[in-house]
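Our consortium's second objective concerns turning raw sequence data into structural hypotheses that experimental partners can test. To show how far this objective has progressed, the report includes one record in full. It was chosen at random from the queue rather than selected for favorable results. The single chain below, 386 residues long, was entered without modification.
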Amino acid sequence: MKIRLERDVLADAVQWAARSLPTRPSVPILAGLRIEAKGDQLIFSSFDYETAAKITVPATVSDEGVGLVSGKLLADIARSLPNKPVDITSDEQKMELVCGSARFTLQLLPVNEYPELPAMPESSGTIVSNEFSQAVAQVVVAAGRDELLPVFTGVRIEIEGDTLSLLATDRYRMALKELSWSPAATAGEGAALVPARVLSETARSMTSGEQITLSLSSGASGDGLIGFEGAGSSGSRQITTRLLDGEFPKVRHLMNVQPTVTVRANTHEVIDAVRRVSLVAERNTSLRMKIDEGTITLEAATGDQAQAVEAVQAVVEDHTGDGLAMSAAGFNPHYLSDALNALDTPFVNFSFTAPGKPCLLTPLEEIDGEPRTDYRHVIMLMRLPS
């Protein structure tokens, strides 16, 4: 193998591919980064038997070939190289990188022992990359972190015609985002449960191009692959990952809240107030939201040691006609902060039904407008002390 490419192209490609390397590989060979020189391109690949990443970048290839080196070491080296063209050569035992006066020699790993990467499934459709990235960010905040309950650590992707839905829950909160996309088949339907961590990193890393191609295998639920392909700053990027096993809980009906009380307020004012008041919130205790006509008041305390109170102007509406059905609600401050920060509008609409029942947050473009329904975030309220 004999190739030349720009230092920034090498560094960006290696850093991106190396992110998918397993921290504790089940077999040592999986710590390697596969490098293939072919035509006028250089292809970097990583795989951990669950998720595979491949990036293709332009290069001047004098001799084609394939090599396998320590991915972490190559990433550290590429990041430290001077800003000059990089020459890479390899034989059967070693690979040499020369950049200016810097020279590195790396021992090759047995490439014939490296597992074959899964093939990208057939394209299911395309979606605008920035919109997809934002949608994923809005939903993954509600995904679980407990690996003992893997079904809650995923994001369910649902395809129905030209609508793509993303849904996540950790049992205490739920987020749903619906957006338009361009399906390969007009009557296409499908569903996949994708690891939230992989989906989040993938969506963030493919925003340089205009579109992302989504490819869903036709296997049964929890049995198959999903693939994503898009452009990065230095070349085309592909990721495939195995779908999570298990049946995602039916939680969509919890999004259909019929409010007895609605509260509308400035999103950033509420975010700032929650941030300040929750500084004194004791662990595992609620942040209280008192609801009055024209204001909401946030309260938190750590026993007798510290208390905080802050009022925010709001538009409060009673839908029962019998006076306010709710005077206070208890939120997990972290869940409330996550939900508010996921909104992309100047105002937020809270829909309450009864104490202890789920609260629905929806985005508002104008304080007196109608709430948008493309994004919905439900938080289970905490019981307030009597």
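The partners drew two points from this record. The first strand starts at residue 2 and ends at 5. The chain has three domains: 2-113, 123-252, 256-379. Both points have been shared with the crystallography group to help prioritize constructs.
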